[in-house]
Amino acid sequence: MTEKELIKKLELVLEKEPHNYSKILELSSSIAEFDKENVRFSVDAGVINRLGKELVGRHETAVSELVKNSYDADALTVDLYFKDCDKPGGTLTIEDSGLGMTREQLVKGFMTISSSDKIHNPKSPRYNRTRAGQKGIGRFATQRIGQELTIVTQTLKSDKALKVTIDWDKYEMDSNLLLISNTIEEVEKEKEEGTTLTIKNVRDSWSDTMIKRAYKYISDLLQPFPLSDRFEKSKNDPGFKATFYRNGNVIIDEESAFFQHALAEIEAYVDENGQGFYSFKSEKLSIPEEVYLIGKKDREDKYLDLKNIHLKAYYFIYNSNNTSFIPKTVNTYVLENAKVNGGVRLYRNGFRVLPYAEKDDDWLGLDASARRRSIIAPHSNLHFFGFTEVIDKDGDNFQELSSREGLLETNSLKELKDFGYKVLTDVAIKISQVRERKGTAGQKDWDKKTTKEIIKEVKKEFDEISKDDKGNITIKLKTINDKLVELEEVEEKETLEREAKAKELLKEIQLLRILASLGLTIGEFVHEVNHYEPAFKYDAEFLTNLIKDTEGKKAGIRLQKNLEAFTVYTSFFKDAISKNVNRELEPIELREPVSNFIEIITPDLIRSNIDFEKPEFIGYNLFTCPMHSSEWASILFNFYTNAKKAIAKKATTGKITIEAGKIKDKVYLEFSDNGIGIAPDKEDEIFEAFYTTSNPSGSNSSELEELSGTGLGLKIVKDIIEGYGGEVFVTKPKENYKTTIRIELPKTNIEDYE
Q1: pLDDT, tens digit, for every residue of 285-310?
Q2: CA 600 to CA 605: how far, in whole Å?
């Protein structure tokens, strides 16, 4: 159409269809193209797909961004439901209890690319949280996850909910972004406030490992406190909790991710008559739940002004040289969290009372007690996560200060402090006794006894009673005998477990000895070969020039090329060994070890018919934390040899690639191959010691041949990476590949390092 025809048509639409905004926008956009004096930016709809892939590369990251949006909306809880997501095509529903969105917030916030809302409002309105979500990433995260998005959102003040459905497949190349519309409608509210995102036709499969990894990406937002069921809205941030479900079953939540690592779970009450009692249990120490009385002076004394109190706490003992109750990968996370959030919070009538259990607040006197060392059992605020709940509707017993921060030091508060301190320290001492540790400094006649010593004592008691002729001798004998049998069974079980662990450790030590001796052998070999390399090279050139026939000449050229490849290998090992002499750690820019690695293996790639696609480095200054440079040779060669085996088993033309980049405070490297792949249920097992898919070696195999299939390779890689506070895991394969292994390491800001 001509400009005049378009203007005429626009006038007609404005007259006949004044509310046909899509048509008005389309005609206005077409008319603007005839402007000869001005030019304007236009946006292709395909930008949505590009931004979705470039800003949110992995689907675990996409989910974490959506959870962060719920956190920013002041939600207390967010629940994620993965339905039929074990393969592409399923549905993911994300339901939060946040503030919800008004029409204006939905249009100018969520539906506006590069919204400035988080810049103008860096803190959330209700709980004053620092915004966690990256600016504008959330909407693209939904596009990255699935094909269709439905938003249902409502606020406290709204009578209706707003519903928008977006089909991301409509945002195709060569169409104007402004001309694609999505219907917004009012529907009945699902709840008082909050937002529900339903993402249909998910693009990727989700294994349990991937779901748990997505949870870990948002773990820094989670405040692991058990909350009372009677909790009401409070001006103080009560915490944020996320639960991930698959087909109705919990895959991971705070209980499985955090509290399962607690050594004991504690529950305590003061009833309406003032009688205090508590119970605790520990699966790790096989302690069954048992109820104990506790009072103000003696155990049976009642509290005069303390009524209807509930305390719940989780007790942690962190790993040391002699203890290991928490997995290594979790221990640091729990401990760092405890430094900020450790302690027992106080809730009055469902509202949290500050400053109790804030950082450096010691309202129960646990830190002071730990410093006195009269109780040796670990019992500082670092070792507890929990809450105390008091119900005081009339405000007679627990009165707020005029500043609204803290409570008056009434007798009720003093008794509450006494009750909380006694419960927690009593549990700590009892657990020390079970662990055969000294609980208090004044504990007399304490001596750690072995199982054998206990059995000897029982035998002695058995012998003494067997000489008794009283009527109750049979009962006593049976009791002692049962105890003796039980202890002997325990000893036998412990002995078998110790023997099994010892054998496993011995095997690993033997294999590590082989690795160490092999390293020395390689060092000697490289040193000696250096003397012969020039002679090999000269003789190969001389023979090639001397031979006149075509086939002989070709053989000579092949010999020269093989010697060149051999020289590259020996140079690499020589360099690695020389660097190994220097024990200083330094940040490694990932381009360097990858480039060296590719140069070394290129001849082997050609011989093995494997195509190494050009590595992709996303960003600059990809510096790891200070490491030993020779360790990257071990890491990359391990990945490469495993990839070769997987490709050979598939009997296909091989393909390998590497991608490296950085995210927030980490750098990462992904190694991908198109071999046979890894079964989802084996993704964690491959990093365990002695796990291998190699065929057993024959009886005449050499020590080196036996070593190549031991399954220690990836275990060593894992130990290297975790030793630097990083992670290595199997992630979603890159497109056209079957396996992708990802390493994440703390990054170094090289400017600060220098």
Answers
A1: 999 999 999 988 888 889 989 988 99
A2: 10
